[in-house]
Amino acid sequence: MARRLLILDYSVDRSEAPLIAAWLPGSVEVEVFRPAPGTAFPRPGSAEFAIHTGSSLSICDDAPFQTEAEEYIRACSALGVAQMGICYGHQLLARAFGGRPAVRKSPRGLEVGWGEVRFSPRACSLLGVPQSCRLFQYHFDEVISLPPGAEILAWNEHTLVQAFIDESRRLFGVQFHPEFDEAKGNAHFLKDRELLAGRGFDADSLAAGRPDPPADGRFFRFLSEHLREGR
Question: 8, 40, 88, 210: which sits with the fewest CB atoms below 10 Å from its CB?
């Protein structure tokens, strides 16, 4: 029987779900939910695991779906549903259990580019990553506190919580974007040339970089192969 995965796509341009779905094996039945006025969130537990996507929205503001999203995350956690959060989704997981004080605007401003991330020894073992990786970064906000019992898996000079795991609540959050490979990531930088220039970044310089190791879906495999089983 196919396993069911729900992607909750919070991206304003609806671009995130297709990027993530491309990394998922064909044996996984993927459903996509995009919050909209008057549309109720899916029933918690209707899928075996869920991914909360990135967004150009700020976690420090109250999105129209904020209350419903946080309630959905807590309800899924209570049912043992494994949940992964990416960038905005990572921050949303933290805010669902820690409230507004769990997140903030980064005092260092925008982090963008193929940024180096350091992983703990346990993270290297769990995720199959080297101690240092270059990964796609594009965020203004950050997580500053985690639910009791959660463990930081990765960090860098810009952002203290680049990744975390909360095994008791079946939560896995990453501030970086593992859905972007080299081609798609660099195309995204070039698309935002004017916006980045206004922030003091050169899109061509950013697009000269690449992920290291190359993007291969390992973070998504971790969600389904490890966190779902609660090992």
Answer: 40
